[in-house]
Write a sequence for this structure.
């Protein structure tokens, strides 16, 4: 569940995702009109100085564009510099992020893949006070409800996506799950996997979560809340080392496991598994 090199100050509480503005002195030419996106109803404003990267980011996150003027400002820099301090910081293969109360900085961002990775890392922290988290899972929508299929790389997430009806895949690799409006909901993300589902900027109430196991026959095994939590933990994306952050995430996952029906899904890499789930 924990990956990479990171540094953190005592608390990540009190982070604001809206209302803070960059001063004119901080803006470079061409940065007065940021790329505004919303992922899981978390508004973000990306200030990208490099034209080629900005164009690629617009294509990649186009379906998640937002017209709202309020959001967490994120300043991108192609070059890195000396380590900075903030509520949360993280280094990843030459790129880094620093999160402060009024915004975030991404440094050493030379291509869209680094940007994509840093956005995922940032969201795991920003989602904490919102009772949300990112999960290695494909999410498919049927009859207005979201079915979440969790598993590590190679478990079959992309297979499930490819066997699902056209247009039903909310996301094929990284699912965003949040408590909102009195229930748990699954949100589409632009973070795709092998199936390369671009992701839908939509959200649906959860029908259930299914831990994938490749098998010789289709079988559905109900999981207790404790067993569901054990299956969830290896699939959760989270990067903050701080103890209070761990505790906050764990409380959210315990509530999720208690509230959402969970199963272990044994399947043969064909669409027959839907018969048992949707029966």
């Amino acid at each position: 569940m924990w990956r990479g090199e990171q540094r953190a100050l005592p608390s990540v509480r009190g982070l604001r995702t809206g209302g803070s503005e960059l001063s004119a002195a901080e803006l470079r030419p061409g940065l007065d009109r940021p790329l505004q996106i919303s992922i899981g109803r978390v508004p973000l404003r990306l200030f990208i100085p490099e034209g080629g990267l900005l164009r690629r980011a617009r294509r990649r996150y186009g379906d998640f564009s937002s017209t709202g003027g309020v959001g967490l400002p994120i300043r991108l820099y192609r070059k890195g510099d000396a380590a900075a301090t903030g509520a949360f910081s993280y280094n990843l293969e030459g790129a880094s992020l620093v999160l402060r109360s009024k915004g975030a900085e991404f440094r050493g961002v030379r291509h869209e893949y680094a940007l994509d990775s840093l956005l995922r890392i940032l969201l795991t922290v920003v989602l904490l006070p919102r009772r949300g988290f990112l999960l290695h899972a494909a999410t498919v929508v049927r009859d207005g409800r979201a079915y979440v299929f969790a598993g590590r790389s190679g478990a079959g997430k992309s297979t499930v996506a490819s066997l699902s009806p056209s247009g039903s895949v909310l996301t094929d690799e990284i699912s965003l799950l949040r408590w909102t409006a009195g229930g748990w909901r699954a949100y589409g993300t632009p973070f795709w996997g092998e199936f390369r589902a671009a992701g839908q900027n939509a959200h649906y109430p959860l029908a259930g979560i299914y831990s994938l196991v490749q098998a010789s026959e289709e079988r559905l095994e109900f999981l207790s809340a404790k067993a569901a939590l054990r299956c969830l933990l290896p699939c959760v994306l989270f990067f903050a080392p701080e103890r209070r952050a761990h505790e906050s995430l764990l409380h959210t996952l315990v509530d999720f496991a208690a509230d959402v029906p969970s199963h272990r899904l044994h399947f043969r890499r064909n669409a027959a598994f839907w018969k048992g789930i949707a029966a």
Summary: The first helix runs from residue 51 to 60. Residues 89 and 150 are 27 Å apart (CA to CA). The helical segments are 51-60, 112-126, 157-162, 225-232, 243-259, 273-277. The first strand starts at residue 5 and ends at 8.
